[in-house]
Automatic annotation (TrEMBL):
InterPro entries (UniProt xref): FAD/NAD-bd_sf
Protein name per the record: NAD(P)-binding protein
Alphabetized Pfam families for the sequence: NAD_binding_8
Length: 386
């Protein structure tokens, strides 16, 4: 089968590696001069500053991405976080367990889950109002950190499948070498299986009639086309305008520290602030930075970049007394968002064209971020081979 792939992001490369290792003829076209899209990093001022992701895999070595990487033959070491998460509440670090919150919060969660089974579904901000302040703020920080959304942008029914995945596969992990180590492995697998990756190669149009013709630097023909650029942009290449679910936007801060601030490999949620959480992945792999590298994430409503000033104020308050330097402030929206489709709202890998599919964070399965991308790739493999 001749397979053309538009985009060498994680979705495109993961698909390409699996198909190439099955013996398919794979060619990938990437408009940028490097592979990896929003899941890689570049050395900048002594730190591996990522193009997007916070060097974290939501379910670590146990989740869907790790499983698919093993299936593709990728040799990536993923260190599971320990502890998985803490919260910074009233100036103290606290482990997150059920006991961290009033007993009544647990009862309300059970009741809401039951009511969902009986057909009542509501937005998370409505549910959140019924909780204690600590639980409500922690939920908001979790949504901001994990999905870059606010509680009024997600429904209970959209969150629950992801919570179930988290119960099953547990919390995050960090790949040794960061996101780029994952990308380098996938590129190696594709190239050693005879696949080709063309960089600086933007695709400007597609024509899906029988076989699929694509138009970039040259005109090419494939049996199947897999797009890593989301449904809206894919259809635009075919000359069709469609509307898709909303994207999620945010800002990432990369901070160099003389002394560690978090001191472990997990997440520190920061309830009650514009910044929703932080990690310090140099605690897993010291080669990711000259000193300690703290990364903080803040969701941005409607891409309001003026909120960055408030995020910077949070950082000054949180890091008071520490010697630190902000290495990069990166804002994500438009064609380079946090999520092309907000978590829980993805619409699957099929398109109106029989031989054109979408992978990546415009077509996630029911899970978080790159683990959702891996489930989306599995869905595509079922479509192609079952
Ligand atoms: P992309 O990475 O966007 O890849 C698409 C590729 O297609 C790009 O390289 C692009 O250049 C190329 N392209 C576009 N148009 C064309 C064209 N016409 N022709 C050729 N090439 C084209 N996820 C996690 O799991 N963990 C995290 O810690 C995490 N943190 C995040 C923090 C931030 C600030 C951001 C922005 C994202 C984060 N994510 C995280 C999400 C994760 O980075 C993305 O879900 C993932 O990288 C998306 O991969 P993708 O393959 O779908 O898309």
């Amino acid at each position: 089968m001749r397979v053309g792939i538009i985009g060498a992001g994680l979705g495109g490369l993961l698909t390409g590696a699996i198909l190439a290792s099955k013996g398919e003829e794979v060619e990938i076209f990437e408009k940028l001069p490097f592979p990896g899209g929003r899941f890689t990093s570049m050395p900048y001022r002594g730190y591996e500053v990522s193009t997007g992701a916070l060097h974290m895999i939501p379910h670590g070595s146990r989740g869907p991405l790790a499983k698919l990487l093993r299936k593709a033959g990728a040799d990536v070491e993923i260190v599971n976080s320990n502890p998985e998460a803490e919260i910074l509440w009233d100036g103290e670090f606290e482990n997150v367990t059920r006991k961290s919150f009033p007993f009544s919060d647990g009862l309300k969660l059970n009741l809401e889950t039951l009511l969902l089974k009986l057909g009542r579904d509501r937005k998370l901000d409505e549910f959140s109002k019924s909780l204690s302040e600590k639980a409500s703020r922690t939920l908001e920080a979790f949504l901001g950190w994990s999905f870059s959304v606010f509680p009024d942008q997600m429904r209970f029914s959209e969150l629950m499948p992801i919570v179930e995945q988290t119960m099953k596969y547990r919390g995050p992990g960090v790949p040794v070498g960061g996101c780029r180590a994952v990308i380098d492995e996938l590129v190696d697998i594709i190239e050693s299986s005879g696949g080709k990756i063309h960089l600086r190669s933007e695709i400007r149009a597609i024509r899906p009639e029988g076989s699929v013709r694509i138009y970039g630097k040259d005109e090419r023909e494939f049996d199947v086309l897999i797009s890593n650029i989301g449904h809206r942009l894919t259809m635009k290449l075919a000359g069709r305008e469609i509307s898709t679910p909303p994207e999620s936007r945010g800002v990432k801060y990369t901070i160099a520290l003389k002394e560690p601030f978090i001191g472990h490999s997990g997440v520190l949620l920061t309830p009650g602030r514009k910044i929703s959480g932080m990690n310090e992945v140099t605690n897993v792999d010291e080669n990711l930075g000259e000193r300690h590298m703290l990364q903080a994430h803040q969701p941005l409503r409607d891409g309001r970049t003026e909120e960055i000033a408030e995020g910077l104020r949070d950082l000054r308050e949180i890091l008071k007394g520490y010697e630190y330097e902000i290495i990069a402030v990166q804002s994500y929206r438009g064609d380079w968002p946090v999520n092309r489709v907000m978590a829980g709202k993805d619409t699957g890998c099929r398109t109106p064209f029989e031989n054109v599919y979408v992978v990546g964070d415009g077509a996630k399965g029911k899970d978080i971020e790159v683990d959702g991308i891996a489930l989306g790739v599995e869905n595509l493999l079922e479509e192609l081979y079952d």
